[in-house]
């Protein structure tokens, strides 16, 4: 497995891969890999000749007083996991390499960023779009892979690719969970032992809410009561929206999503389903 640290090294690898007539699958990450990331590598390997993973904690998507400085990092561990999963190359740039100058052009997320996580993290998805746009161009990927746990991010990136005719496909990966239902996340390491015991109730609340909605009931208040009784975290939001438009008018698929702030970790989770098929 190659370790590429500069843009020039990455572009050289891309040129050689394309010259050989091989396709490229991109798995963008911020590192501290878990089974969710590795499942995306597996999916990318099945659909492409070569897989490149980016490992970059992107400062552009962190707001003031967020956890950029303490975001978990372990490159040696990540390298071993990525190689074990069959990744062909990892791109590990420094901040200076990725952003050598102050950007003069900005890409701004639209209305999809005004709900869920975006409502309380202004500019977050602008930072996501900034980094993925650069990665898409640098890797010339045929397909890029994102997990559904970050469903709002996924929807916004799909809009970016569609609206600006990027010559690539966005592929969705299912949320990977622990045996007790907790969605895999790099930030789970922030949970205390007591909070870790409480965290599976997020998935249980989502399943309960889905069932209530399918029975014709509004699930928000019962879910709020359930999480208040069963966790010590502060509920940031619980929302039921159309997916992927993230509007209130549910046409086909629906997303039921929530965020809960524990002492040192803000956990998000969601389920996407078609009410007409249930």
UniProtKB/TrEMBL annotation:
Pathway: Cofactor biosynthesis; (R)-pantothenate biosynthesis; (R)-pantothenate from (R)-pantoate and beta-alanine: step 1/1. Pfam families: Pantoate_ligase (PF02569). Homodimer. The active site is at 37 (proton donor). This is Pantothenate synthetase. It catalyses: (R)-pantoate + beta-alanine + ATP = (R)-pantothenate + AMP + diphosphate + H(+). Catalyzes the condensation of pantoate with beta-alanine in an ATP-dependent reaction via a pantoyl-adenylate intermediate. GO terms for molecular function: pantoate-beta-alanine ligase activity. Beta-alanine binds at residue 61. (R)-pantoate binds at residues 61, 153. The reaction proceeds by a bi uni uni bi ping pong mechanism. It comes from Planococcus wigleyi. Its EC number is 6.3.2.1.
């Amino acid at each position: 497995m190659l370790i590429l640290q500069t843009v020039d090294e990455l572009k050289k690898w891309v040129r050689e891969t394309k010259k050989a007539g091989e396709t490229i699958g991109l798995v963008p990450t911020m590192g501290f890999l878990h089974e969710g990331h590795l499942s995306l590598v597996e999916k990318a390997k099945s659909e492409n000749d070569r897989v490149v993973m980016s490992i970059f904690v992107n400062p552009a998507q962190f707001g003031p007083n967020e956890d950029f400085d303490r975001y978990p990092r372990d490159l040696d561990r990540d390298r071993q996991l990525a190689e074990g999963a069959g990744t062909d190359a990892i791109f590990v740039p420094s901040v200076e390499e990725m952003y050598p100058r102050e950007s003069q052009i900005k890409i701004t997320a639209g209305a999809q960023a005004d709900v869920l996580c975006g409502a309380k993290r202004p500019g977050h998805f602008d930072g996501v779009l900034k980094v993925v746009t650069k990665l898409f161009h640098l890797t010339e990927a045929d397909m890029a892979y994102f997990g559904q746990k970050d469903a709002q991010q996924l929807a916004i990136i799909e809009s970016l690719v569609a609206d600006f005719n990027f010559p690539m496909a966005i592929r969705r990966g299912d949320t990977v969970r622990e045996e007790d239902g907790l969605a895999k996340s790099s930030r789970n390491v922030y949970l205390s032992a007591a909070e870790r015991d409480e965290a599976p109730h997020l998935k249980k609340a989502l399943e309960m809410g889905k069932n209530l909605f399918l029975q014709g009931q509004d699930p928000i208040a019962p879910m709020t009561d359930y999480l208040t009784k069963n966790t010590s975290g502060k509920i940031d939001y619980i929302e039921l929206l159309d997916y992927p438009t993230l509007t209130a008018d549910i046409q086909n698929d629906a997303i039921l999503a929530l965020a809960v702030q524990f002492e040192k970790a803000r956990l998000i989770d969601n389920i996407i389903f078609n009410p007409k098929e249930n």
